[in-house]
Amino acid sequence: MEPLICTICARGGSQGVPGKNLKLINGIPLIAYTIEFAKKSGYFEDIVVSSDSKEILDCASNFGSSLNIKRPEKLAKNSSPKIPAIRHCFQEAEKITKKTYKYIIDLDPTSPLRSFDDLQNCINIFENNKAPNLITGCLSRRSPYFNMVKLKNNKYASLVFEPKKQITRRQDTPICYDMNASIYIWSRDALIKSDKLFYPDTLFYEMPIERSYDIDSEFDYTIVSMCLKNQ
Fold first, then answer.
1. Rounded Cα gap, residues 6 and 28, in angstroms
2. Which of 5, 34, 102, 157 suits 191 as a labelling partner, its CA being 20 to 30 A distant?
3. What is the pLDDT of residues 204-223, one digit of tens each?
4. What is the mean pLDDT of residues 47-52?
C-alpha cells in the first residue's frame, strides 16, 4: 500500500466555541481524541497536524503526532477556507518526509465520534472507485423541500426549494444528507489542482447521526462531551 497521510487541521481561533481544539473532555484536549484515533487505526504512516497556534502544535506533539506544520496566517483567518489549509499541510509534509502520498485523509478534530469501521469503509470505497474525493455525512433531520425555510427581507418565509408538486409529509421528500465534517479523502491530483469540494463524481459515505456531531456551538460541545464520556 502507498504511504498514507492523515492531516488534522486545527486553527487556534474559533467563533462558535473559543479555543475548542484544546478544550478538555474527560481531562483530554479535544484534538487529542482525533490524534489517538489516527494512531490506533494503524492506517497512517504519518499523522500531521496543521495549526497557526503554538499551543495546539505543542499539544499535538505531546499526544503523538508524527509531524507538525505551522499554518500561515493567511490560511488561519475566520474567513479562510479549509481546503487550501489541507493542501498546504500535506505539501509541506511531502517536502519534509520526501514522500509522495497517493491520497490524503483529513480527520476533523471537531467531529471525533467516528469509528474505526467508518474509516475502513471510507478507505475501501475510495480505493475501489476512481474518484477525486470522498465526504461523509448522515441523514438530514430537516428537508429543504418540506421544513427548511429561507427568509426574504428578514421576515417572509419560504421553502429553500419549492417542489413542483406540494409535499405534505417529510417522508415523501427526496432523501437529503447533512455533511458531518468527519472524514475527507482526496486524491493527490484533485487536492493539488482545485479548491472544489464537490465534483460530479464525489463519493459519499453515510454515518449514523450518533457519530455525526460536529462541534460548532457550546450545545454541540455538550453533546459530544457526553458521547465521549460514555464510550
1. 20
2. 34
3. 999 999 999 999 999 999 99
4. 97
Identify which has the larger pLDDT, 55 or 2: 55
Which residue matches cell numbers 441523514? 139
Which DSSP letter does residue 218 get?
H
Dihedral sign, CA of 49, 71, 21, 221?
A: negative
86 closest CA partner among 178, 180, 191: 191
Whole-prediction pTM: 0.93
Residue ranges covered by each domain of the chain: 5-135+181-229, 141-175
Which phi and psi (to 5°) does residue 168 adopt? -105, -5
Look at 1-10, 41-50, 110-119 and tell me which has the smallest mean pLDDT.
1-10
- What is the CB neighbour count within 10 angstroms for residue 75? 19
CA-to-CA distance for 19 and 42, rounded, in angstroms? 29
Average pLDDT on 81-94 reads: 96
Tell me which CATH homologous superfamily contains domain 5-135+181-229: Spore Coat Polysaccharide Biosynthesis Protein SpsA; Chain A (3.90.550.10)
Paired residues of 69 in beta bridges: 50
